[in-house]
């Protein structure tokens, strides 16, 4: 049976780039990690060692820095589109460019209500993500997302009514801590949208639903979050959410003669529930 090359792609991952945008009285600071992945006519490189159609990943990396000077002044979605268009338009052998950008979020310091012009805090777990895919025929898809968003609420969460067998010890509860490290990714309906405004709208909607929802399970809240975002934002085609259940288990204080009235918990890292879902239209 003949053997041939199957699906393949290549590119430079984790191109770490930071950029100051200098204004007269203040600076903006942005930090991203960019990954480039090209798909195309690379058969000869694999089967013959012919690199004549292989744009080096080192060149791809340099391109990210070079184009950042002029083009990384707005959203990561817009920068991703510029990079994807660059690689597809300059390289006839490339049938698809996929650009993924993860942004580390720095917040401007503020003292006595005064925003500091050039000092920031950051290093938190929350990141903003954008993915752009551009095909040689011009078909473009843009996804946006959030990673590492730590969410917790101390009530309005329960888990009951589940099947029980001989291995079930979990007590039903109508009042527990709900905590997660949320990851979300949504697809936009077009590539020429106001990505900043839409991101802020989706982010706010996610937090609002998480906080106000009377949760009967993580699954119930996951769906409510996705449903609300699709209801409110026509430009979102579908949304996928990952919501691991970061358990806070009531600690038994009875040996110490105390009743634990849902106040003292042990926060466990592992194992953890892993709940995922996509909410779609139609
Ligand atoms: O919200 C929850 N969903 C589950 O599927 C589950 N399973 C479990 O043990 N606790 C929980 N909580």
UniProtKB/TrEMBL annotation:
Spell out the InterPro entries in the cross-references.
Uricase, Uricase_CS
Q: Where does urate bind?
A: 57-58, 159, 176, 218-219, 245
Coiled-coil region(s): none
Say yes or no: keyword Oxidoreductase present: yes
The question of whether Cell inner membrane is a record keyword is answered with no
On the tree of life, the source organism's domain of life is Bacteria
Q: Which reaction does it catalyse?
A: urate + O2 + H2O = 5-hydroxyisourate + H2O2
GO annotations under biological process? purine nucleobase metabolic process; urate catabolic process
Q: Which PROSITE patterns match?
A: URICASE (PS00366)
Q: Which Pfam families would you find in this protein's record? A: Uricase
| Active site as annotated | 12 (charge relay system), 57 (charge relay system), 247 (charge relay system)
Q: Which residues bind O2?
A: 57, 245
Q: Which pathway does the protein contribute to? A: Purine metabolism; urate degradation; (S)-allantoin from urate: step 1/3
Q: What family is this protein classified in?
A: Belongs to the uricase family.
Q: What exactly does this protein do?
A: Catalyzes the oxidation of uric acid to 5-hydroxyisourate, which is further processed to form (S)-allantoin.
Query: What name is this protein filed under?
Result: Uricase
Query: Gene behind this chain?
Result: pucL
């Amino acid at each position: 049976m003949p053997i041939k090359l199957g699906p393949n792609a290549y590119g430079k991952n984790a191109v770490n780039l930071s950029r100051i945008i200098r204004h007269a009285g203040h600076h903006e600071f942005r930090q991203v990690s960019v990954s480039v992945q090209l798909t195309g006519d690379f058969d000869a490189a694999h089967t013959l060692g012919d690199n004549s159609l292989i744009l080096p990943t080192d060149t791809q990396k340099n391109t990210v820095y070079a184009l950042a000077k002029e083009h990384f002044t707005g959203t990561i979605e817009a920068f991703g589109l510029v990079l994807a268009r660059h690689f597809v338009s300059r390289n006839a052998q490339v049938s698809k460019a996929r650009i993924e950008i993860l942004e580390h979020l720095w917040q401007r310091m503020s003292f006595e209500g005064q925003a500091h012009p050039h000092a920031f805090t950051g290093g938190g777990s929350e990141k903003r993500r954008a993915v752009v895919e551009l095909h040689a025929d011009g078909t473009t898809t843009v996804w946006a997302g959030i990673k590492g968003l730590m969410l917790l609420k101390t009530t309005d969460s329960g888990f009951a009514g589940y099947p029980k067998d001989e291995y079930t010890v979990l007590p039903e509860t109508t009042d527990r801590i709900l905590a997660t490290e949320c990851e979300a990714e949504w697809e936009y309906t077009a590539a020429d949208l106001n990505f900043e405004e839409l991101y802020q709208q989706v982010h706010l909607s996610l937090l609002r639903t998480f906080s106000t929802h009377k949760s009967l399970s993580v699954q119930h809240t996951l769906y409510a979050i996705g449903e609300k975002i699709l209801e409110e934002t026509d430009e979102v085609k579908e949304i996928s959410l990952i919501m691991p259940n970061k358990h806070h288990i009531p600690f038994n204080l009875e040996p110490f003669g105390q009743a634990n009235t849902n106040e003292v918990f042990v926060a466990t890292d592992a194992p953890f529930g892993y709940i995922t879902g996509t909410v779609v239209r139609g």
